[in-house]
Amino acid sequence: MTTTEVPARAAYSAIVRKGQTLAIVDLHGNQAVDFLVYNAGDTSERYSAAATIAAQRNIFLTTGSVLRTAGGAPLMTVTADTCGRHDTIGGACSKESNSLRYGQHTRHQHACVENFLAEGARWGLGKRDLVSNINWYMNVPVEADGTLGIVDGISSPGLEVQLRAEIDVLVLVSNCPQINNPCNGFDPTAVRMIITGEAA
Amino acid sequence: MTTATTYGARDHARAQDGTIVDTMPTIPASAWPGPPAGVDAADLTWAETVAGGGYTHKVLARGTEFRLTDLDGDACAHLLLYNADAPWERLNVADTVKVQWNAYLGESVALLSDQARVLATVISDESGKHDALCGTSADGLTAFTVAAAKHGLTPRDLPPSLSLFQGVRVGESGELEFQGSAGPGRSVTLRAQLPLVVLIANVAHPLGVAQVSPLRVLAWRAKPSNPDSPEWTATPEARRAFENTADYLTARGLA
How many pairs of residues across A and B have Cβ atoms under 8 Å apart? Predict the structure, then answer.
């Protein structure tokens, strides 16, 4: 078992071998965990939000959801989820998109894309490898008229998602530093990553 | 006509000149017989009809307006856009829907890049049936892979795409409802706000039927949006995206 506490605002990455399970624990509640996953053997094969939600015909992830590549191949499966639903459509915050959502005064604040780029570079990943990501514990409803937004979370301290790797995968995580919307309760906090099980 | 000799094969090949089929580009585009109302034929820069299952691609100047038409009601135009000068800047559907606080595409919506700039704007929409959530199908992935390669781009350069003419709506529990098309003859017109690489795959929607009908593409020289254009101030977020775009173009010496 490998346990890692990811500090508030920090990045994390790890290889999870086929058959192993990654648990993501929302230690303090309502902490968005921005998440990308790649085939560890060929990172051009990567999580596709579009293929994942088209296959399950639902935008929310929960127990039973299969995280898929653009070609439909399973990368990981959600095997347990005590929160209930997670976001697939809101993407990651960036210094750039912060300038649109809030104004130029937020341009120099830390953001998830900064974490993805810096941590991804350790694995040879660059900007081209960043695509629409999962936001564990983030609450993004869509109204009948299409209005969507990041609203107050439905998570609470100690809730947990478990993901079983279907192949050897590389996970790339940003423990979201956003302070301009409720995705972290306006107070980014630490999360815990636990990898268990034998590689198949 | 014999093709047993080089001379015969040459004559055979050359005898095809001028053949017209239903799905093909018209080159030069100014020869297209039906320019849109108010558009001088001499300003046309792209005139092409794409078969169901087909794809096309073009580099467009900033300010170009391009119109996609679902001729028979079963087209599905999967679209990817890149900054032609720096193609690592590309369409970001997540930012497009999140920043503009709406999951559905329509008139005045800005198609945003990952650099918080406007790649293109929807300036008219007769369909209202579109999708920014489900991406493309296996056929679309293949088409985009090949089209992207012709611009030096690889599968790593393919983010989730959006699609026009086949609608998807989200239900209360997050479930996806496939709405299909708004019928034949509907057009969507976009305006390039940066120099663009445009990739279009006319293939099945992932939730739709396999049969796809032809798509027409017309483009013509026009002017980029300015602060008096309605889309510039459609939302505060769109205004800031246009301001970011202008900032980039000014510093780059392009505007």
Answer: 128
